[in-house]
Structure formats: C-alpha cells, structure tokens
Amino acid sequence: MITNIKDVKTVDDLIDYVNAFALPTDTDSICHIQDVVGHTEIGRLEELAKEIPSKLYFILYHIWGWEDFTSFWNRVSNFEHNDYHNLRDKHNELISAHDTLQKKYDSEKEDNIRLRDLLNKKTEEYNIITVKTSKLESEVIQLKAKFYDYISKNQNL
Fold first, then answer.
1. Which domain holds residue 48?
2. Are 66 and 39 in contact (CB under 8 A)?
3. Helix, strand, or coil here: 60?
4. What are the contacts of 40-43 at 24+ separation with CB within 8 A?
5. For 85-112, b where at least 16 C-beta lie within 10 A, e where not — what string?
6. Is 104 part of a structural domain of the chain?
7. End-to-end CA distance of the chain
8. How many domains does one find in the chain?
C-alpha cells in the first residue's frame, strides 16, 4: 500500500490513498493529485464516477475549478442533464425527418396536382371525342337511311 502521496501514479492509487489517509490539502499534494488526475483518460474517470461516485467527486471537487467539476458531473452523473441532451438530439432528428417528409409530401402533392390536371384535360378531350363520335354515328345512320330510301325507290322503278 502507498503511504506517501508522491508515490501515487494512478487515480486508482489515489482513491486507495484517500480511503486510507484522507485527502491531503497542502499545495504540493494538491498539485501532484491534479497531475495524476490530469494524466488519466477521461473514459477511466467516467468509469470511476459510475463505480464510486462519492469518493471520486469528493476528490475532483477539491482539485478542479467549479466549472470543470460541474461540467464533468453534468456529463457523467446528471441523468436529467443527459436525458435533456438525448431528448434534444432526438427532437432535432425528428425535426430533420419531418422536414424531409414534408419536402417529399410537397413534391408528391405537386405531382398529384399535375397528374389531376392532366387527367382532367384528357377527360375533357375524351368527352369531346365522344360527342364527335356520337354526331358522326348519327350522320352515318342518317346516310344509311337515305341510302336505303334511295335503293328502295330505285328498285320499284
């Protein structure tokens, strides 16, 4: 076991030391502790914050400035803060998805209007052709009738 703060090389050693002897408060020891914590990967600090939060936060509170400590605590342990950021990110994703779908909807709506106009135009053309066809059929029937009358008169002669 480490009995001198100067022999502490890792955060795990530091936590063992603080558990055994308390947190030293002299300037040299605090500077050494800051160096040890400063050379620790942030991922390891986050793991320790989840495993033994009270002890780690006690140490960090005494060696970091308020803003750094609060920022770290919010990022790692403040679940409401994390939930807020997760919800904000999800909200932004949903807004983006909504915008994409809205653009697709608008495009489809324009296509629908264009196709409806084309259908109306073609229906109108069909109706015109149907009327013309009916007139021509009537004319053909009248011509057949005249032809039949003509043939009938000529056969009786």
1. 5-77
2. no
3. helix
4. 40/10, 40/11
5. eeeeeeeeeeeeeeeeeeeeeeeeeeee
6. no
7. 142
8. 1
Residue 147 falls within a domain, yes or no?
no
Q: ∠22-28-34 over CA atoms, to 5°?
A: 75
Is 49 part of any domain? yes
Of 6, 10, 38, which Cα lies nearest the Cα of 24? 6
Best CA proximity match to 76, nearest among 116, 44, 108, 106:
44
Which residues have a Cβ under 8 Å from the Cβ of 112 and sit 6 or more positions away? none
Tell me if 132 is assigned to some domain: no
Instruction: Give residue 73's pLDDT.
Output: 82
Instruction: Determine the angle formed by the axes of helices 53-63 and 11-21, rounding to 10 degrees.
Output: 90
pTM: 0.49
The pLDDT-based confidence of 77 (bands split at 50, 70, 90) is confident
